[in-house]
Amino acid sequence: MAMSRTLIRGAPGRFALLAAIAALAAMGGGCGYTLRAPFDESIRTVYVPIFRSFSFRDDINIRLQEELVKEIEERTTYRVVDSAEKADTILSGTVLYAPKFNAVVSPNNLPRQLFAELTIEVSWEDLRNPTDPDREPPKVVLTQTVPFFPEPGETAFLAYQEAIRRAAVDIVNMMEEPW
Asked: Which member of 27, 32, 149, 159 has the greatest number of CB atoms within 10 A?
């Protein structure tokens, strides 16, 4: 009987010790590791205008801008502002292509599997130093391709929405490091 009291009494102490060790290990112990993403702390605000579009798909550039704003606000320390005058940086771009193409057709020549493709050119301009001669930001081109199947009811709209979401995640991932 006395043994069970010792185990019950000793268990919270052991748990607290293990929790403290885990917390110290998570802090990195001064090794330079951190749990937060390596976003540039000198940047506080980002302006994300509606992207230009060379695509005939309706509102794909507006949906991309909305998804980018949501992704930046959820994952970064940056605040999205409504004008370039209030911003430290501008994240802008162009939707270059948004084609849809067949991958598999049925014997009756109906599409069974299609791909929605989204190609975007993005640049991130730093506005904090207007006299910098290298102010022209580099442009990055990225492509997302999402398969969809019309027979069970999947639509091109949903495939493009997934491509937009993936592109927004990739763009915010690229914001972790200088361009």
From this structure: 159
